[in-house]
Amino acid sequence: VQLQASGGGMVQTGDSLRLSCAVSGRTFSRSTIGWFRQAPGKERRFVGGIWWSGGSPTYADSVKGRFTISRDNAENTVHLHMDDLKPEDTAVYYCAADLAARMISGNWKTYTSWGQGTLVTVSS
């Protein structure tokens, strides 16, 4: 499976932004798509994830109520819609696939396929 993240950019505090993760290749019913972010000098952190087959997404506490993950079946794309952005949301955002998931994992090591990352910069 191949993933390509896009949609990053530079925004101001309080703005919204939508990232997209285009998924191609073979997926499985037990696949999940996760979003992660990595700020400079910090470890990669889970943002949220969704089952490829559908269902309710899972979010990190830091983004609950501000970020929404959705899946576009027709376009084989997973979106990360980010509202009320804050400077601490500044990071490179990655989407990744876990092809044999038992749950939506928050551990980046669980995910075997990764997109290239897209930079989000939020200025104050």
In short:
It contains no helices and 11 strands.
Protein traits:
mainly beta, globular, 7-stranded mixed β-sheet, single chain, 124 residues
Q: Helicity level, as a percent range?
A: under 10%
What does the radius of gyration come to? 13 Å
| CA distance, first residue to last residue | 37 Å
Mean pLDDT: 95
Stretches with pLDDT under 50, minimum 5 residues: none
Strand-pairing-aware structural class:
mainly beta
Shape: globular
Number of strands: 11
Helix segment tally? 0
SSE run: EEEEEEEEEEE
Give the amount of beta strand, in percent.
over 45%
Characterize the structure shown.
With 124 residues, the protein is an all-beta fold. Helices cover 0% and strands 49% of the residues. The chain has no helices and eleven strands. The strands form two sheets. Strands 2, 4, 5, 6, 9, 10 and 11 form a seven-stranded mixed beta sheet that branches. Strands 1-3-8-7 form a four-stranded antiparallel beta sheet, with no helix packed on it. A hairpin with a 4-residue loop joins strand 7 and strand 8 (77-82). The mean pLDDT is 95.
Q: How would the blueprint of this fold be written?
A:
Blueprint: E1 2-6, E2 9-12, E3 17-24, E4 32-38, E5 45-51, E6 58-59, E7 67-72, E8 77-82, E9 91-98, E10 113-114, E11 118-123
Parallel strand pairs: 2-11
Antiparallel strand pairs: 1-3, 3-8, 4-5, 4-9, 5-6, 7-8, 9-10, 9-11
